[in-house]
């Protein structure tokens, strides 16, 4: 922590500083604090960072919060003679971005109140420096480059719920994307929100604490239950979300007469959400206009549904264990070279397609780029030279882009024509879309490059941005300035010649500007027009009327030059802002090409094949691999496995596979591998397999592992049952269901019974393609009863003192778990292992289930739903018990 000059650590005996201003008599508070409170009251829901000199300080309650959250020292400042000390925390102004980003990441809104005039001017006039809110940062409205993750969208969402119907709009204000949708069933709203992972969600309520930002996990009675707890929620007034207001706002913003063109004219909840979202942006981004792209309406049913748990279990963008990117599917296959491409790939993976045409278009492009190595490499080379046009044009549109941003955007625009030229040598769909880029974009880029110097400074008001020869007025002023500066540079020489004093010097200081200095010993030789200003021990300092005149010209010319350059720059920026939509439209195409070139690269170097998309409900994968495990352990060490499920294209396989095998043999890996291959295929990507024929599936469901959901107070078993219920209630025969252990969180008999009934229900009632990994070998009996069920096992080789994992999936059921061997490997004491073996022997000998199953479970017929009341759960095993005993 860097101390601000006014900071004094608190001494325990002193009266505690005020952390609440409400009880204080305003007239007795210092003027600066009065202003602070005024601003704070206008922004009660944001942490207020208030500029004081070189620091941004915060006071009262905010000081306590910031000190706690950022681990900064809580100090105090004098609030007035009769008031005493006020709690204070400060951050140095140059570290503002870092600290405010940390606060926003923790779910706070942050209001920045900066000095908006030169502090020296105010000091000279003996008044308080003028300050105003210059930025209001909330998690969903960030645009500053340093606060955003380049490879991830930053979505702001708004929801409107009416009964079981809902509307959802979302925007990324840094890239301009703006989408809206409407659907039924609140659980599908939850699914959409977890897909988007918005940084902030707006909820219209009639809560008394309107405008409050709820941090992740914070509870409120005003939040509908279907909204996941792990997001930030902004409680908003209802009015902007009313149909009339929302619709008018959309019509006005887009200057249209109807919303027909945007596809949401007849979707009132989608309109309300979108209108409410726009109002929030207007409200929070007062100073900066945020131009969004035209609103696009989509239907949730256009895409493969991946619910939150499936997305998590398949580790698409982060791992389950520690939430890291390393080890996720995205990590394994992201070979994009631009931030735009990386963001697009993430979106594509989270929203795979259902439409065969769309999948084919992507496949064909990947195929062409895979086959044509030089084209792929040239394209990637060009793409590397293209900056983040989506976010750059966003900042241009918002008027926050600096000269370097503008130059980066301009260089990208110019390079587009090279990219188009390359695209013209190809013939696949995504290359075709880039064969033509609007010519005016290139011209625009060139104009910017002509205007701006090669490496412009970061600050816009300090000059040095615009090249010579661009503006006659600027050139003229520069010339005059240069001449005056030259006069000044020569002054030392000319004055030395004139006076004959060889050690005469011309220098500058802040107090009286330029001056001539003579050694004290030569002071008597000073010419008459020298006016003495200061006497030091060894030196006399003088000014001359001519020097002062030139100086004043130089200083004014400097200010004027900076202002002129700034105006030329902002004019140029506004010209580009007018093309923001066109730029972003091209940027989307560039991003898509980047994704596909990256996937082609993966296909080449990681040996992926093009899956054939066939009608029906087929999964036919030959020698499939898990993309992440393969990359982690190295391809030669990964054992490929095939998977055949469902039917289509003239073949028929089982619908449900019971997969058994010892611990750590590779069941989970196999299960996820099938899910990931299906997901990749519907993303349009090639897949890690020797060959694959796949049908489109409507949803992928997964139930993997067991994790206590402590946050919601649910036990491992309840989480498992909830997830299973969700699958049984929503899966269709077009779905792919991956179940890893069901019924382990309860007593063995209950667990086995549930697992049995679930598998049976899926195989007979739903007929979804399913892989069911389990340690209940008893489930292998299902295959002898149901024709669409088959048994597979992950094999191991048993040696005298160890087992070797072969990781091969082969037909047939395993009859041993090797759980005790796993315990031995893990280092359980030998006596415990011996005892466990003894106990297992006894259980196997006497187990009613084991005996019963061996004796003929095929007699158990699946229970019809209508009969279930009359049959007790334990009847299955009760019947077996009798038979076992008879034996
Ligand atoms: N096909 C494969 N080729 C090579 N290694 C594999 C393969 N499948 C799995 N493995 C390795 O084996 C490890 C254990 O696999 P996995 O977690 O899938 O086992 P499991 O059978 O599900 O175990 P458990 O029953 O204990 O959950 C993986 O982390 C991986 O490193």
Automatic annotation (TrEMBL):
Residues 735-751 form the DNA mismatch repair proteins mutS family domain. It holds the Pfam family MutS_I. The gene is mutS. Belongs to the DNA mismatch repair MutS family. GO terms for cellular component: cytosol. GO terms for molecular function: ATP binding; ATP-dependent DNA damage sensor activity; damaged DNA binding; mismatched DNA binding. Keywords: ATP-binding, DNA damage, DNA repair, DNA-binding, Nucleotide-binding. This is DNA mismatch repair protein MutS. It comes from Pannus brasiliensis CCIBt3594. ATP binds at residues 661-668.
